[in-house]
Amino acid sequence: MSEPAATIGIVDYGVGNRRSMEKAVERVGARAVLSADHDALRAADGLVLPGVGAFPAGMALLREAGLDELLRERTAAGVPLFGACLGMQLLFDGSEEHGGAEGLGLIGGVVRALDAPGLKLPHIGWSEVRWRGASPLLDGLPDPSVFYHVHSYVPHPADPEDVLGESEYGAPFASVVGRGRVFGAQFHPEKSSVHGLRLLRNFAGLCTRAPA
Fold this sequence. Notes:
- The chain is of the alpha/beta class.
- Helix content is 25%, strand content 34%.
């Protein structure tokens, strides 16, 4: 008997590839709800935090809408959360970008500029990701897998065990992270073809299961 389709709330705080993420989530068989409404997001089986742009501006928008506290509340209740690109960076304690800002504090660590001397920034394009940890988020994905990145900053997790996947641009960086049922990817899964959709399908599957 197949698992019921998950309802995934896509957090709409005004930035990011919200519509393309919505379509990608639907394509993997889940029901997507793109919303900033707290009740609609509370009713979801899992949450996706997309994002494009600067960390301080993204956090300011989340706080203005009260979505920062909502995300902390839902993850504390065991609801799976997946952050993509800027959404992944916002999961951390803070960032040094544009003078610095505090983040959601769901994963320990700080976001810093890419260490890529002599290389063009932002880092744009397809890059291999090699797996460094085991997680159902990665089921069925080859090692390495290739994903589409667009970024100038990267997280530095406080706990190396939170790094599930690592890529390289000038120096290695954490490209996929996970702590409990909170996950993030520095790349855009919705723009990453077969491997990106597989990762989203795995996340959708996690949203229908009780915490281990």
